[in-house]
Design brief:
By secondary structure, the chain is mostly beta strands. The chain is 0% helix and 54% strand. The chain has one domain.
Length: 115
């Protein structure tokens, strides 16, 4: 994933682009956008992908060295409730802990199919 500052530095945008190959005839592509929501006093993340999937997540921010994102969306034609993380800071990311670019999701858990 490649992440860069976007929209005059107010957002971070990232792209996932799998390469097509003999084994992967339908490569996956996705985009995420993250910002700090001053009204909610927390972080917001939006996700869209080439399968028609989407998600919106929020996080209250770093707690010690962990960040958890909670949200909902639609994946595989089903509504889902999603938890991403907890993400853990690496030594290299410690210096940038106050920036959402330091977030690295370690897992995505589909908590339930939303009705």
């Amino acid at each position: 994933m490649k992440i860069h500052g976007d929209l005059d530095g107010m957002w971070l945008s990232g792209h996932v682009d799998e390469a097509a190959s003999k084994e992967n005839a339908h490569p996956f592509k996705g985009m995420l956008h993250m910002t700090y929501d001053t009204a909610a006093k927390g972080f917001a993340m939006l996700w869209v992908d080439s399968t028609g999937g989407w998600a919106r997540h929020s996080s209250s921010g770093w707690e010690v060295e962990r960040m958890v994102w909670l949200g909902d969306g639609s994946m595989g034609g089903k509504r889902v409730v999603v938890q991403v993380g907890p993400a853990t800071l690496t030594d290299a990311a410690r210096a940038a802990a106050s920036a959402p670019a330091a977030a690295r999701a370690s897992a995505t858990t589909y908590l339930s199919d939303a009705k």
